[in-house]
Structures are given as structure tokens and as C-alpha cells.
Amino acid sequence: IGNTVLHILVLQPNKTFACHMYSLILSHDRNKEGPGSLELIPNNEGLSPFKLAGVEGNTVMFQYLMQKRKQNLWSFGPLSTVLYDITEIDSWAEDQSFLELIVSTKKREARRILDLTPVKELVSLKWNMYGRPYFCFLALFYILYMVCFTMCCVYRPLKPRTGNRTSSRDNTVYVQKMLQESYVAYEDELRLVGELITVIGAVVILVLEIPDILRVGAAKYFGQTILGGPFHIIVITYACMILVTMVMRLTSTTGEVVPMSFALVLGWCNVMYFARGFQMLGPFTIMIQKMIFGDLMRFCWLMAVVILGFASAFYIIFQTENPENLGQFYNYPMSLFTTFELFLTIIDGPANYDVDLPFMYSVVYFAFAIIATLLMLNLLIAMMGDTHWRVAHEQDELWRAQVVATTVMLERKLPRCLWPRSGICGREFGLGDRWYLRIEDRVDHNKHKMMRYTEAFKAQDRGNYDKGSEKLETNRGTLCKKEMSALSLSRSTSRTSSHRGWEILRRNT
After folding, report:
1. Domain parsing of the chain, residue ranges
2. Any idea where the Ion transport domain is (predicted)?
3. CATH assignment, 291-409
4. Beta carbons of 222 and 229 less than 8 angstroms apart
5. Smallest Cα–Cα separation from 494: which of 452, 455, 464?
């Protein structure tokens, strides 16, 4: 019951009342330090009160709980050293990490905790010491891997075509080699080494990604842009395309260019994932993700309807015409492609002035130009501009969240020997097995002095105001006397308060 009340207090809007009640309940806890403590008992979602405060973005309760956990090590003048308990914050030995919970929640208030002590210092320590070097090395390794795969695709086994052309529009001059013909020369053996590296890399990607999907869940793993959800979809699809290409090569199946082309596009687009390692480029990756999977996906539905309607109309109009003079609409698939190019203003309206064009073509094309170019494209630009404005106002928070998500990802996937645990064990200071982070703080005494001076001025003004109000009560005889007394009172009050205030400043100096 006590643990349930603690979880309820974390969700209370009245933060001050919740903190006092939280301390009152813990004061009656019998197991304050042991594993049976009320603060360590999780709820049905596996969240302790401390983790729940982070997920809900309750910064007041989080700071209150951290103040209870800190240990003052020593202080000398303005300098002081504090040990903060990071047992539940650090993702080292936690199945459900506090940092991972913060970046995976949809509440913006939770990301503000990343700028509070000691979370900010812990993330900075992990990222600067291990996260950034490992991430940059991983980016360089992936780029070299993609260069190897690209060279294997460029020099794939082809041979001249020997069969006759079946149509005047058939322009094929090379065809794919069979498996027995693909690995004969020395250059083919070099390409085989690159292909083996490509296939091994695809298998490694699947081995690393699938356990995280099973642990977190597909909806949460692919749906969070900060966690790199769309990029996980891209890299898994890329690995699957590589395996499909390998199967088609081994079975001598024609048409390997289709999965190979998809793999090239997806593999190089995944390079944008590594832009999150740089503060200048990190927020732009989230901006691109939100535009593609938010604005562009909604816009594509409208675009598909417009293209289908007008492409069908164009095909019907030119169905009776000679395709040699106007070949842009000679069949229905080509009509769809040409209409798509017209929609994006890649090409101008097809016209041949040597022959007569149908009258309905001019009418339909006029309506298409108004709807597609003037209306819908400007609508897409406005939607993307609004998304850019929203992301630009959150770019600092998004950058910190990206760093945390990347750090947790690297810490989980790298061997323990390459990523030692951050912090200090409490045994060195007689604090048990819990881990702490040492933070040095500097107290600015001048700031506190100025606050005391301000309070002194306020106190003098309050005292003079009280005396003046008593005089006003006694001098209510006539209106003239009351105005004169109020005027003299305001002057004396200002002079007295300023005089006494400056006396306090001179005395303290």
C-alpha cells in the first residue's frame, strides 16, 4: 500500500504537497536501505517511483529524490564535492534503463530531465569518453562497407546479349551471367571477397537488430524518431535485400537488379543516421524523418489520387493517337510515370507542334497545372515549413535525447571490456554496493550576498509601509491633511529605505 501511494504522489500536480507526503511515508518505512524498501518496489510496468518521475517528466519530484540520494563528500570555501547515486540512472546493469525510458517516452517534459544534475554530467561523461569515438569509428566503418558493396554492384557479372530483339523499343545489350560463369577470372575472385563481406555485414545487422526488436517491441522500436526508428526499418530492409540478391545469384535467377537497386538506395540513405553524432546535423535528421513520415506520407495520399485521375485521362485522350509522335502516353504505366514527372514539374507538358493535339488535352492539362503545381506543391511547402519551425524550437532537447539514445545503444551492443562502468563504487566511501558520480560544485557567495541585500531593501520598504499606513489611519480628519501626509510619507519612505539600504551595503563592503 505504501509503495502504491508513493507512485500516486509522483503523479500529483501539487509538487510541494507530494514531496512532503513522500517524506512522511518513507519516515515510517522499516526497510529504508534494504531491497525491501518502498522506493525500490516497482509497479506493474516495472517502474520504481524514481523512474516513474522521469517518465512523467516530473522535474520537481526528480530533483527532490536526487537531493535525498546525494552525499556531501567535502567542502572548502566556495568549492564542494558531492556524490550522486546513479544506480538506477546508469544503464550498465539495468534491463529497463532510466535514460532509455526518458528518450523513449512521448512527453516533452521528460526530456528536460536530461539537462539536470547528475543526468547531464553522466551523459556527458559517457559520450565524451566512449560514445563519440566509438560512434565515429562505426560511421567510418559503415561508409567503407557501403563503398565495398557499391563496387561489387558496379562490377557485377554481365555478358553481351546474344538473342534477337523482340521489339523496336527493346534497348537491352547486356544480360546477367549464370552462376558458373560469374567467378572465373581473377577480377571475379576479388569481387567475390567483397560480396562475402557484404553478406556477412547484412547477417551481422540482422543479428544485432532482432534482439532489440524482441526486447523493446516493434511498435516502440520503429515508432520513435529519437531512437532512430525509421533508420532501423531502412537498415533491416537493406539487409533483407542483400540476402535476396545472394539467393538470386546462387540460383541463377534473372532480375537481381531489383533487390540490388533497393539495397543501394537504402544502404546509402542509412548514412544519414550517423549525422546524429554531430550537434550541427543531429536535429536535421529528426527534421527529415518527421517530414518524410509525417508531412510527406499524408501528402502522398492526395498526390496518388490526383496522379491516378489525370494519368487515366491522359491515357484515354492519347489512346487513339500514334505513339511514335507522342510517346509519353503510349501505355498506362508510362502515362502514370509521365504524369508524376509533370506533377513535380520535372518536365514540361509534352507537345509536338508537327501534329495536331486533341482539344481535351489542353483542357485537362490546364486543370492539372492549376491543381498540382499551384495548389498542392505550395501546400506541401507550407506543411514542411511548419514542421521545420517546430523542430527548430526543440533542437537542443532533441540533440541531447539523440546523444542519450545513441550512448545507450552503443553501451548495450559493445562488449563490457570496451565500455567500463562509469562512476565510483560506494565501497570506497563506506556507502555499500551502490554506484556514485563525483561532481564538483562551486558556490558563488557574491550571488548570495546580492540576494541578502535585496531582501534587506524589501524588509525596510515593508517596515516603512506599515508605519505609514498607521499614520494614515490616525490622520483621516480632512482630505488636505491626508494628501499632505501621504506625500510626505512617500518621500520619507523612499529616502529612509534608500539611506538604510546604502548603509547596509557600505557596512558589508
Report:
1. 5-109, 125-276, 291-409
2. 135-394
3. 1.10.287
4. yes
5. 464
